[in-house]
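User: I'm new to structure prediction. If I give you an amino acid sequence, what do you actually give back? Let's try with this one:
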Amino acid sequence: MNVAAILTINAGSSSLKFAAYAVGDAPQELARGQVERLGPAASLTVHAKGASAEREEIGQADHAQALRAILDHLGPLLHGRRVAGVGHRVVHGGPDFAAPLRLDAAAITELSQFEPLAPLHQPYNLAGVRAARAAFPDALQLACFDTAFHRDHAWEHDTFALPRRYYDMGIRRYGFHGLSYEFIAGELAGRFPDLEKGRAIVAHLGNGASMCALRGGRSLSSTMGFTALDGLAMGTRCGQIDPGVLLYLMQNEGMSTDDLTRLLYRESGLKGLSGFSHDMRRLLQSDMPEAAQAVRYYVTRIRHEIGALTADLGGLDALVFTAGVGENSDVIRAMACDGMGWLGLSLDRQANADGATEIGAGPVRVLVIPTDEERVIARAVADALN
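Assistant: Good question. You get back a string of structure tokens that encode the predicted 3D arrangement of the chain. For your 386 residues, that looks like this:
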């Protein structure tokens, strides 16, 4: 038995997700789970492979305490294996990091410069790194970036129509959810080889949401830009917005940058439109007209971006739904494809309702593929260890 294990950590503002893998020819999952509601009333869920999930209330917890709680429960699941490497999802890698990065104090300092570009993610990603370095001082610590997958974009898909000096300063379109898109590109190559070299749009629809145009398994363009605010409406983030609105709010409503940050990141999206929830499940169950309006706006933005990304690709061979909403909501998938027969998109209603992998009924294939960002991270750590 190989005596080494890999731990992956995905730290957000209010949660810390993890997975553990045995090191072998390919990482073999041992367990996964998360600590939710970091703060005064955190809870831990651990799901060992092949067993039922176990949940425990752990009370007050920050990122370091959450990691300690995870380790207390994970130890027996490692069966004596030592943690040889820890892989971290780091949302923003800036213009230069297009590959996984070994983390030391200097690297962490450099990555902290991107905190203003991803305020809901980067500070907490790095808090998870610091906690893991303290817990595993001898283990390899590796950052895997959500922006890296998009670093080969052509200039016209990266730039804004600002004076060119701003592009040189790093103000450009970065794109996000790259670890998810990398996993889906790998799944298309392995399971649907006829699509590997084709033109696909992947819709990563979760609390954070974006879409990516893939050509030959590589990112051509993405709906997200300089920050994770652009593009689709999300759980609490606004998505596409006229920047003149922000100027108006500053000049006429006296809003500060802190006010705007709170508005755009935490109070907008589905939560702002509905007035009561960011959870798609609650909105679809509600009979409030505001909930229905929020859902219609959400779907309208998806349909707009399908058209735009298809134009970038010069045609479309496949549409892939993934992430929490994309994988689980047959209603949203149906609404997104309804009336899109002109593009070759239509659904097999029964297959869609059943949550089948293949749900299309037209010339453009429509797929539902669960994403696994943790496995992408684990593979990167395994490669680095080898």
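You can read the tokens as a compact description of the fold. Here is one thing that stands out. The domain at 4-145 is CATH 3.30.420.40 (Nucleotidyltransferase; domain 5).
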